[in-house]
Amino acid sequence: MNDHFFDKDGFHCYYISMFSGLLKGFKDLIYPNYCLVCNSRIDSKRQEPVCGNCWESVEKNLPPFCSLCGRHLNPDDTKLCPSCLNKKFNFDRAFCPCLYTGTIKKLIHEFKYSGKDYLGRPLGSIMNTFIRDYNLPMEYLDFIVPVPLHQSRLREREFNQAEILSRHIGKEFSKRVLSDCLIRTKATKTQTELGTFERLHNMEGSFEVKRPQMVKGANLLLIDDVMTTGATSNEAAKSLKKSGAAIVLVMALAN
């Protein structure tokens, strides 16, 4: 038998090497060495579960932004996009860093429906970068509120993706996350299955503020993963405003 197994330093080196191998194997289980979007191999040194090409292909939502829903304005638009001209939302303004296409659409789907909660870190980083790049008024906000899931859906998924994103933002900007303040009282149908009018009707009366004293007079940042028609954010903001919230800004990862 080799003497180094009995040597103190050699003994330590052997077990450190073995432990490092176990850690690498565990890391590969969590962060597979293939891209979640295109399935190409990823350099083992890369910290993200997405290859560089796919990460660069993320379609950003670029200014000028609609002053209500946050979508990109066309050259003929003024302050509002065409879809917001005849709408009245309960939130004060919305912001979205990305377009809901390609890489981001795939990652959000993996995040929500395939249990890949570790995607919250890179996706939350996109939101944090947007906040800094466009100087969102974080200093005037009191709390971050994630859009909640109904208990039945939370049991099914085991985590709330909006809460994970909220915690990454809260940590970055030193803001408290009120994760149990807003609750979902109705197990609504998935919004992706419905048209615009059906989405609005589907969300009516879906939310309730559990601790209204926490939000009374407060400026809030409401967080969700996707905003399409704005029906979910609108109904959540309605409950927060009814409970006395002063300002409710909305931020979704994509629209």
Give a concise summary.
This protein has 255 residues and is α/β, with parallel strands linked by helices. 38% of the residues lie in helices and 12% in strands.
Beta strands, count: 7
Strands in their spatial order, largest beta sheet: 1-7-6-2-3
User: What characterizes the major β-sheet?
Assistant: 5 strands, parallel
Write down the CATH topology of the largest domain. Rossmann fold
Cα shape: globular
- Give the amount of beta strand, in percent: 5-15%
SSE series:
HHEHHEHHEEHEHEHE
**Rg from alpha-carbon coordinates:** 22 Å
Architecture per CATH nomenclature, i.e. the level-2 architecture of the largest domain:
3-Layer(aba) Sandwich
Helix-and-strand structural type:
alpha/beta
Uncertain runs: 1-8, 20-25
Mean pLDDT: 86
The number of helical elements comes to 9
Q: State the helicity in percent bands.
A: 25-40%
Number of domains: 2
Under CATH at level 1, the class of the largest domain stands as Alpha Beta
From the N-terminal CA to the C-terminal CA, the straight-line distance is 64 Å
Please explain how this structure is put together.
With 255 residues, the protein is α/β, with parallel strands linked by helices. The protein has two domains: 1-30; 61-254, Rossmann fold (3-Layer(aba) Sandwich), CATH 3.40.50. The chain has helices at residues 8-30, 52-56, 102-113, 120-133, 151-157, 161-173, 196-203, 212-215, 231-242, and strands at residues 93-95, 143-146, 176-177, 182-184, 207-209, 219-226, 247-254. The longest helix has 23 residues, at 8-30. It is globular, with a radius of gyration of 22 Å.
